[in-house]
Amino acid sequence: MEQNQPKWPGVAAIVGDADLYCVSCALKRYGPGIQDLVEDRDSARALVDNEGNPLGVVLRFSEDLHAQYCGDCHTRLCDDDCCCYQAEAAWDSQQDEEGEEEG
Ligand SMILES: [Zn+2]
Ligand SMILES: [Zn+2]
């Protein structure tokens, strides 16, 4: 039985410089302190972005993630299976092709 559940669902994105970043890009941008932020350590409260504003986090499954992409690498920040991207993909394919392809 696994008892090591994290105390929160986990950080999906970091908020800084008025943008959202995936954790790995945030690490590159803001340095290893991001790890403290992800783990919700007190030391993370001192972290600021390049504009001097405190860095924030967006937790997994947050509504704020819908249809959001990392500001650096453009990876999907919301869940890959989430309907927000499917709606977007359906819209894209509608724009591209009008052929009827039924699987
Ligand atoms: Zn979504
Ligand atoms: Zn990224």
Q: Would you summarize the structure shown here?
A:
This protein has 103 residues and is of the alpha+beta class. It has one domain (11-96).
Mean pLDDT: 86
Q: End-to-end span in angstroms?
A: 42 Å
Q: What can be said about the biggest beta sheet? A: 3 strands, antiparallel
Principal-axis shape:
elongated
Number of helices: 3
Helix content: 25-40%
Compute the gyration radius: what is it? 17 Å
Hey, roughly how much beta strand do the residues contain? 5-15%
Structural class: alpha+beta
Helix/strand order: EEHHEH
Strand order of the largest sheet: 2-1-3
Flag low-confidence runs: none
Describe the structure.
The chain is 27% helix and 13% strand. By secondary structure, the chain is of the alpha+beta class. It has one domain. It has a 3-stranded antiparallel β-sheet. The longest helix has 14 residues. The model has no long low-confidence stretch (mean pLDDT 86). The structure holds zinc ion (2 copies). One zinc ion binds next to helix 1.
What brief labels describe this structure?
binds zinc ion, alpha+beta, 3-stranded antiparallel β-sheet
Helix and strand arrangement:
Blueprint: E1 11-16, E2 19-21, H1 23-30, H2 33-38, E3 56-59, H3 83-96
Antiparallel strand pairs: 1-2, 1-3
Bound molecules: zinc ion (2 copies).
One zinc ion (ZN) is lined by residues 65-66, 78, 82, 84.
